[in-house]
């Protein structure tokens, strides 16, 4: 098999540790990767680049088109731009795919039957970043919803559901209040939905939809929603499935794709061999599927599941009575590698 | 005791049934109320009034300054305005107080120790209703955050916490993305917070904050947040505490106040003596406290709790093994009245 070129960034905080662990596992599983490393995050921000990404990083990304990214820390204070948002926009990564499933009885959860995928629109909404100070007393931010952007994400959600053998696509919006912007979402959801008679369609106002998701997530399958709702509710879904620490995500565009953990860089845990590499590893599994190394992806996933099942857990998911052995980042990775 | 004039609207769907049940309970408990009835909702909308509120209703509200409101149905299609939003704005009801606590072991919940109050800003944010079509392909909605509005709600939250003997106030915003609007929130939260050294202060980005709330709500006490996050997360909190069907809310302004259930008009359940009047009754209890009839409020609350404890439950919270008797709206109200 030819090696696939990918771009990798070790990030900040716990980033380097979980990236090393992840890459070790991928290598042991025989992933065919040609890795280019780039620098992003704190160090780059502090050098004066407000996006947190060195210019030559973009060359690498445009060449490889595949980005495995560890979490970064954005320095406090004004002037800095979110690297996540910049990357998503610069590379046109319009779909953020965020699976959240429970691993009952191996990881504690109150929702043993949950298996939800949130498809989050990734470029528009309040994340368009159009904010200004009207007067010293009044601040504004623009929520932007476009027809092409909405059509793209909704079609992506239906195609995803069909290709993954899923049964239902649900749409969450607040169209009883935002009749134009969120109303457009509903309209396009209904229009595009007609092309998918094989899939069940469902629509909830986001308040009560979120309430049902948090209470009985097993009612849901694939859920598509605008950027901000998706940001909030994908964290909710991941956390109630077990932990935000074990969820990965794929940011998909027409040309490029970025894969990451959904959690942050947790600076206070950094450098202590404490962090759970599972979120990033789950991102890497999605990456392997994306670049056509599905068999390797399956090998990694099975070894990871076996490790969880054997009760070998990092501190964040360790629970007396369920877990067997509390391990650090390195030991967890070694345990996964032993099980490949 | 002098009777307090209040304005009452029976609303749509299950509204009339739960309002009748609620008023019967209040009367039996000796609440001193002088009730003025107004018409709102479907019938008024259909008569061509886009706000769903007949003009003379405003006179009543300006006179009594206290509004007990059943849920209404807004007809589908364009042109209609949300009556809730109109009323909140017209009467300056800037604070929406939404308690969510569990009644374990009498009402089923996965979160037996939860006792959270969400203080939702009620006039600004994307609810300002400034939306427009830029082109046929691009729609926009304005999120508006003002310094006076933010100061008011944050001060309200701290005052509320102090007066209710609560310990901690948490702020939820997305200030890593919306650095101006949500950033202003954080700034003012920190400023105003300094005046309350007796209270613990906490700040979460709304995504991970929401995740923690949905997973371990017992970590929270009072949470203050902008309108839209508050809309979504108060439904989440109520639902995971037991049901959105048992939560009431107070909309508080400097002059007027409105009390309601947090759920909607559930047209499909209407006229069948099925609905749970508890949400509206909880709103009414908050109203009695507000108008200085705290002893009556306590009588009602204790009788209601005793009814729940005795396992006399409407269909929505009925659970084999926990509930004893499945009753309708009227029978539930009678059971509460017997226990006063
Ligand atoms: C770090 C932040 C900008 C980002 C977002 O809001 O999208 C994160 O919360 C996420 O969900 O990936
Ligand atoms: C009916 C709707 C306009 C309202 C809102 O969004 O505020 C409701 O969801 C609520 O929370 O009271």
Automatic annotation (TrEMBL), chains A, B:
One GO MF term attached to the UniProt entry: isocitrate dehydrogenase (NADP+) activity
Keyword presence, Oxidoreductase: yes
Isopropylmalate dehydrogenase-like domain span: 5-336
Domain of life: Bacteria
The entry's keywords: Glyoxylate bypass, Magnesium, Manganese, Metal-binding, NADP, Oxidoreductase, Tricarboxylic acid cycle
Cofactor(s) required for function per UniProt: Mg(2+); Mn(2+)
EC number: 1.1.1.42
Catalytic activity: D-threo-isocitrate + NADP(+) = 2-oxoglutarate + CO2 + NADPH
ATP-binding is among the record's keywords: no
Purpose of the protein: Catalyzes the oxidative decarboxylation of isocitrate to 2-oxoglutarate and carbon dioxide with the concomitant reduction of NADP(+).
Family, per entry: Belongs to the isocitrate and isopropylmalate dehydrogenases family.
Subunit and interaction comment: Homodimer.
UniProt name for this protein: Isocitrate dehydrogenase [NADP]
Residues of the whole record sequence present: 1 to 340 of 478
